[in-house]
What we know:
A: mainly alpha; B: 243 residues
Amino acid sequence: MKTLAFASRNTKEILRDKLNLAFGLGFPIILLLLLSLIQSNIPVELFAIEQLTPGIAVFGLSFISLFSGTLIAKDRTSSFMLRLFTSPLTSSNFIFGYSIPLLPMAVLQIIVCFVVSFFLGLSINVNVLLSIVVMIPACIFFIAIGLLCGSIFNDKQVGGVCGALLTNLCGWLSGTWFSLDLVGGTFKAIAKALPFVHAVDAGRAALTGNYSEIFADLWWVIGYAVVFVCIAIYVFTKKMNSDNN
Amino acid sequence: MTAIKATNLTKKYKDKTAVDSLNLSIEEGELFALLGVNGAGKSTAIKMLSCLAKPTSGDAILLGDSVTSSSLKVKEKINVSPQETAIAPNLTVRENLELICGIYGHDKKSSKEKAKNMINSFGMSEISKDRAKTLSGGWQRRLSIAMALISEPKILFLDEPTLGLDVLARRELWKIIEKLKGNITIILTTHYLEEAEALSDRIGVMSKGKLKAIGTATELIEQTNTEKFEDAFIALAEEGGVL
């Protein structure tokens, strides 16, 4: 009950911020439309809708980190948090209260990307559903990044780290805007060591029906998600206790 | 019955002792004002009593539970209205109140009922659907106090509740606080001496981390051989005190 009450508040705080909606839904949709328009004029295999949709969906998830990180960072420096710290909420109430609303939001954001893609020519079939499910570990990874950044940084710093750095890293190193093979070398090696390109490739494999290729990439994402969830919980709990001292 | 008993409560930050061996006993239903100049240690004392900061040494028992070993039990009995207005800005007045009910374990039905009653008793019916961030400072502070009361705390900490309010809003809040007197134990910190004098049963004056004196306003005036409470406070805050 306590967790749900807190989660409900966090949902309202995020959804009632119009900038969140504009960036979280509007920006990925505009990119999807823009890149599809380029594809229609100058056909590029990378911007084919079944390649593009998972890339944009994963890119959109970086905004989930921004929303959650900003909310937590703002809360941490507010008197409202003092009130919550004197209430019977425990660390797990806080962690689940912040995380629970974000998972459906992240999934919804992916679904919206796919719905827009249907209008741009993406086939409606069971692979779409599989692709959405395959992206859930990526959702958890980005939620954990938000929890971690919100625990460490203030809201302005979260804007810089999640709003600028993470979105750019996610964009450049995910193989969405350009093929990693075009750059190759160290750049490609770094990209392959990070989860972004694996999240996109797992989504693409599911969407195109190459089921045997899904887990080669998905394990990377699941691994990153597990590690970052553990780090985020540890840092959040530690910061919560140190903020109280 | 004793509501709060602090024994040698101490808080040190590296080399600085913010609160030095605070010994204090407050009875149930009492309105106790804790005064002191900036940096005197009163906010740190309140933080320790409300489980926001862990004491370096010593302990405080709040209605039978220790702030060091049973902080979760203590938190169920207390509530705090922090110095700055502590509200969720994008939630309406009603939603803010229902949120606190939920956090203190009430179900949806009970939360709605309690929020409705609180809105009526605080005269907030007309603004109940307004988002908290759109309210004036006075209404925000009133909401903040209502949020502190809706969990029906046995001990309420009011940290400078009227700071920054105009004289009318301040007097309105005084009326609300006066209505609470006797029903719950209230610990009030304030820089407004007339507020402490008008509202409190007893006053404690802190200086340099130590509790220098304790008593009614009249007793403190007598103890310091002064004529006004303000002079008594200055005497206690500047000099060593009489305890």
